[in-house]
Automatic annotation (TrEMBL):
Organism superkingdom: Bacteria
Protein name according to UniProt: Alpha/beta hydrolase
Lineage, broadest ranks: Bacteria, Pseudomonadati, Pseudomonadota, Alphaproteobacteria, Kordiimonadales
Organism: Gimibacter soli
Keyword field: Hydrolase
Xref: InterPro entries: AB_hydrolase, AB_hydrolase_1, AB_hydrolase_fold
Keyword Hydrolase included in the entry's annotation: yes
Length: 288
């Protein structure tokens, strides 16, 4: 039996969206709640290890954005953008009966964390940004554009693993066979006996059509809205989205920021690394 509940809520535009609820001994604000927000193509399974680490001590809500996992696909691909996702997160939290949370955001989820904080300073009790910052390197964006939505269904799991490995071997050069298997099963889901991507390929359309000029010209004010909020920033040592220089500047602008770099890992750390889990623990403890 799963140690979480699959919960569903209706978005403002009528979509049935999903989140996992690892409910601690209580609900609402009587327990500390952690909101986990995945990356662009990702789903709730990315946070299995984090949730397993935190459950029992905290209530853990793991979002699945529209078009991913068990959440409905949007018939209008133009809605696949951070502004829509942020609105969905407020609706999710209202459904869960929670007013303020600790945030753990990977990539897109971390970008959303910064933007939400700028909209509502003090909304987050603590924040962990996984391999994302106010400066997003274009090299990484182009790499992601090169694969998002393009992976076709595989004949079997062995083929799916080989495809993922070919795509990401430079990101995770030290992965074992077991880790490649686990990672692949977070990306694909089996349907009619065939592994398929667990997201709507159309999530790629707004992202691919965007140019560097279309990106927010200055995300630093959004990042600086997190001043006073306990903050951890996690970075893959091989990351092509978050540079070491940007991470250093983030530390200069946010006194007390916990900075963790995972060597020989690209974008993004998996969040099963002991150093990452320790950093998440530390900032949540500060923000309680």
């Amino acid at each position: 039996m799963a140690d979480y509940k699959d919960r569903y809520y209706t978005s403002s535009d009528g979509l049935r969206l999903h989140y996992r609820d690892y409910d601690a001994a209580g609900t609402g604000d009587c327990v500390e709640t952690v909101l986990c927000m995945p990356g662009l193509t990702r789903n709730a399974r990315d946070f299995t290890e984090v949730a397993d680490h935190l459950k029992g001590r905290y209530r853990v809500l793991v979002a699945e954005q529209r078009g991913r996992g068990l959440s409905a696909w949007d018939p209008n691909p133009a809605n696949y953008h951070p502004g829509t996702y942020i609105g969905d997160m407020f609706t999710l939290l209202a459904d869960a009966g929670v007013a303020r949370v600790h945030a753990v955001g990977t990539s897109l989820g971390g970008l959303m964390t910064m933007i939400i904080s700028s909209m509502k300073p003090g909304f987050f009790k603590s924040a962990t940004l996984n391999d994302i910052g106010p400066v997003i390197d274009q090299v990484g964006i182009e790499r992601i554009k090169g694969y998002v939505g393009k992976i076709t269904p595989a004949r079997d799991w062995a083929e799916a693993i080989q495809r993922v490995k070919a795509m990401a071997v430079d990101v995770y050069p030290d992965f074992t066979d077991a880790e490649w298997d686990s990672f692949t099963r977070k990306i694909f889901v089996e349907k009619d006996g065939q592994p398929i991507l667990d997201y709507d390929p159309n999530i790629a359309l707004p992202f691919k059509n965007a140019t560097s000029d279309a990106a927010p010209s200055d995300i630093w004010p959004a990042f600086e809205s997190l001043k006073g909020t306990p903050l951890a920033v996690l970075r893959g040592g091989l990351s092509d989205l978050l540079s070491a220089e940007t991470m250093e500047e983030m530390g200069r602008r946010h006194e007390g920021m916990v900075a963790v770099t995972i060597p020989n890992v690209g974008h993004t750390p998996i969040l099963n690394e002991p150093e990452c889990l320790a950093a998440i623990d530390a900032v949540i403890a500060k923000g309680r």
